[in-house]
């Protein structure tokens, strides 16, 4: 309980730093956005997510746009994890713009906390870890992407790496599940970070497999956690696969390569 209260205090401190770093955003939550592009889209997504979560959560991907297309929310970031965080403010009748501003502040604070947890896991020292958290949370790249709330929510990758380190030091099923929880967190906040997080976890365990001798239980716990994680994520990721198949969506690089091949 003492450690929980200490970490909560640190998160609040990071939140205050976020308010100062983004001022006057906190004073103009209901009207201020970084620009008139993605912030307005993300404000609408958050407002829709919150509405769906409180009325018909099973239809959340059937957003009321692009009728009669299927799963239009899967055309972009779902932001469901971000919406869950701001849901109390939606219930309190904050508008979509305010939800977006609050999400930015929470995202900065949690990103700082993710960096802090990873640094503390490595160093076992509080003050350097707090500094590391601030550096990670407010690196210039994130300040340059203030209009992309999904990029600000970057807590999952460092938390996942911290969970991997903790599992390596003291393997247990609970710690393996914690790694999976970080993967789920990434998938519900930023699909790109979900891919990056999975890649980082895979490379970390590949290095462990090469450098250390581990028994079967070490790996079996990870398999169990991976299966559980996949079951939880299936309803959230399946709409993306369905949309890609239905509308033949693919990455720009793949499309460019296909066009070059067609020309050849």
**Which regions contain 5 or more consecutive residues with pLDDT less than 50?**
255-264
Count of all domains = 2
Mean pLDDT: 91
Number of helices: 12
Walk me through the structure.
The protein has 264 residues and is an all-alpha fold. The chain folds into 2 domains: 1-154, no CATH class; 156-251. 73% of the residues lie in helices and 0% in strands. It has helices at residues 2-21, 38-55, 80-91, 96-123, 126-137, 140-144, 149-152, 156-169, 173-187, 191-211, 216-247, 252-263. The protein is globular. The termini are far apart. The relative contact order is 0.10.
In short:
By secondary structure, the protein is mostly helical.
How would the blueprint of this fold be written?
Blueprint: H1 2-21, H2 38-55, H3 80-91, H4 96-123, H5 126-137, H6 140-144, H7 149-152, H8 156-169, H9 173-187, H10 191-211, H11 216-247, H12 252-263
Helix pairs in contact: 1-4, 2-3, 2-4, 3-4, 4-5, 4-8, 8-9, 8-10, 9-10, 9-11
For the structure shown, list the relevant keywords.
73% helix, 264 residues, mainly alpha, single chain
């Amino acid at each position: 309980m003492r450690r929980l209260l200490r970490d909560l205090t640190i998160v609040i401190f990071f939140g205050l730093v976020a308010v100062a770093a983004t001022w006057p955003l906190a004073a103009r939550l209901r009207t201020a956005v970084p620009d008139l592009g993605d912030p307005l889209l993300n404000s609408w997504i958050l407002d829709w997510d919150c509405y769906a979560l409180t009325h018909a959560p099973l239809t959340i991907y059937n957003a009321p746009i692009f009728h009669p297309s299927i799963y239009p929310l899967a055309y972009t970031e779902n932001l469901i994890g971000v919406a869950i965080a701001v849901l109390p403010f939606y219930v309190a009748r904050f508008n979509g713009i305010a939800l977006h501003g609050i999400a930015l502040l929470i995202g900065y604070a949690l990103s700082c906390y993710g960096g802090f947890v990873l640094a503390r896991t490595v160093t076992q020292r509080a003050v350097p870890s707090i500094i590391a958290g601030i550096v990670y949370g407010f690196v210039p790249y994130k300040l340059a992407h203030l209009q992309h709330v999904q990029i600000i929510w970057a807590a999952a990758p460092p938390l996942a790496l911290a969970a991997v380190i903790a599992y390596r030091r003291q393997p247990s099923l609970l710690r393996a599940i914690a790694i999976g929880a970080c993967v789920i967190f990434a998938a519900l906040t930023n699909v790109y970070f979900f891919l990056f997080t999975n890649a980082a976890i895979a490379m970390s365990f590949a290095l462990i497999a090469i450098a250390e001798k581990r028994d079967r239980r070490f790996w079996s716990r990870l398999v169990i956690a991976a299966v559980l994680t996949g079951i939880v994520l299936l309803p959230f990721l399946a709409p993306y696969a369905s949309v890609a198949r239905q509308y033949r969506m693919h990455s720009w690089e793949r499309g460019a390569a296909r066009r070059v091949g067609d020309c050849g």
